[in-house]
Design brief:
A seven-stranded antiparallel beta sheet has the order 4-10-8-7-5-9-6. A four-stranded antiparallel beta sheet has the order 3-1-2-11. It is globular and about 55 Å long. The chain is of the alpha+beta class. The longest helix has 10 residues. The two termini are 16 Å apart. It is 11% helix and 27% strand. The protein contains four helices and eleven strands.
Length: 227
């Protein structure tokens, strides 16, 4: 069974205005799967992996159909914390969220260096700076990966804006993405669990990338699919 691509769903307003190259459009595809609970509903499955074949229970649609745009502009010093359990909302190859960050922020806001205060995280329990914390590579991508998309130390991180404690996000809710170095994103020195027990502050004014339909919540029904 060939992969089913749906290219005629209406784009969100923000998605329609998102300036993606043809190459980026080809890469930024989203895979939905028939719900086990309700066969009339599709649920988010993953970002598209061109190396895989998907059966007829899956459909593939443009990223612009789910992209919700950029958030309000947050001032330097705004607090934020990591989303717990967001690994299931990442692409399999680890690159796609970086490509999304670049496409959404390039020409508007810095997207290829860490947006958190340099070498600083704050403990959620007492709001003190965590001693000994350091950014990965000074908060920048390693020089051998100047294009950012193919790097490994800068990440598109799921975050809770204006929060001083990491937490979960309900399925289907909106979630924000910010560019963070690896250490800011997955530091485990406080609780022993990645990304928890601390919060951060912006080192510059920023808008976050908003993604709609976190994890596996309904996005569109089979009635929205044209035969």
């Amino acid at each position: 069974m060939p992969n089913r691509f749906i290219n005629h769903l209406p784009l969100t307003e923000a998605g329609a205005g998102l300036e993606l190259t043809e190459e980026e459009k080809a890469v930024c595809q989203v895979v939905y799967q028939v719900s086990e609970e309700n066969p009339r509903i599709y649920q988010f499955h993953s970002l598209w992996d061109a190396r895989k074949q998907y059966s007829d229970e899956y459909v593939i649609l443009p990223f612009q159909s789910v992209y919700k745009g950029l958030s309000e502009k947050y001032a330097k010093g705004t607090v934020f914390a990591n989303v717990e359990g967001s690994s299931g909302d990442h692409s399999r190859d680890g690159r796609t969220w970086r490509q999304v960050m670049k496409a959404a922020l390039e020409g508007k806001y810095i997207w290829n260096t860490c947006c958190a205060e340099l070498n600083t995280v704050y403990r959620s329990d007492n709001h003190r700076i965590e001693a000994g914390f350091a950014c990965t590579n000074g908060g920048k991508e390693l020089p051998k990966y100047p294009d950012f998309e193919n790097g490994i130390w800068m990440q598109g991180a799921h975050v809770l804006m204006r929060s001083t404690a990491s937490g979960t996000v309900r399925k289907g809710d909106d979630v924000c993405l910010l560019p963070l170095c690896e250490n800011h994103n997955i530091y485990a020195g406080i609780t022993g669990h990645y990304g928890t027990g601390y919060y951060m502050k912006l080192n510059r004014p920023m808008k976050a990338v908003i993604l709609s339909g976190y994890l596996n919540e309904r996005f569109f029904s089979k009635e929205d699919e044209c035969s």
